[in-house]
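We treat protein structure as text, and this decision shapes the records that our systems exchange. Because each token names a local backbone shape, the row as a whole describes the fold. An entry from our holdings is shown next, in its original layout:
>
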Amino acid sequence: FKLAFRSTGPLALLDHFDTLYSVLSQFRAVEPSLQEQTLDLLVKAVSRHSSDLPAVLDDTTLTPSARLDHLNALKMSCYLLTQLIEAFDNQNYKEELANVGPVGKARKLKSKSGAFDWESARAHALQVLNQLLQLEIRRLWSMDQVEEEFSRLITACCCHILECPSIGQVKNKATREAVAHLLGVMIKRYNHMLGATLNVIQLLQHFEHLPPVLAQSVTTWATEYGLKSIVGEIMREIGAGEGGRESTGARCCAVFLTELAERIPEMMAPNISLVLDLLNGEVSDTWGVTGYD
């Protein structure tokens, strides 16, 4: 694939998908150096496609078969890259658990092939995906409508990353920001508002480390992507959801809302009555205001 990519670019995936997929399917048995080389190639393929696609999309002479080739290459590369990110994440998490030091702190992990920094590599891969999704790739699909399956592929990868307990650590700041921006693009450009709302609720109900992380993500969506309405949607779902009544879920939702109130109180105010029972006044105390009966 490496040689073919040099000569034909990202469309080389059409003839070499099986080669790259074999690395993914046998990930645990593959040498670390090959794992890392495959990741590097896929990141380069997606990045190169991002550079090529604007001209392709503006080409009025583009044939249906050429359009389909670019669409298939795009779907193949995004599938392989997202699944490889998840495979690396799973492996890294297991290694962290196996390398916990005597005081309960995970030792710094390095690749057997050298000083491979997974945190930096993951953030970069997500940023490359973000660049691709900023383009008008919907024009590659018939009816200019991106398939739901493609959207789920991207968002599922983001949620998988967030599930990792170490995502809130300082070393993963770049990854947290990349995930927030990637999901922001999915919500704004790919009709993922409802899906993102449900994702936030589900993650809060199952992962106690996520309230601060998700509060910052929602703040990013509301302030940098103009998605203020998602704040109300999430609050409405929390207020009405049965899952939030359970002790762990309720506690996480309360912490999330309190964190959110510290960041964007003015956007929460119109819907605060929906969640007051859950919060028992915590948000009002945080704001230093009263009158939300």
Summary: The radius of gyration is 21 Å. The first helix runs from residue 2 to 8. Confidence is low (pLDDT under 50) at residues 281-293.
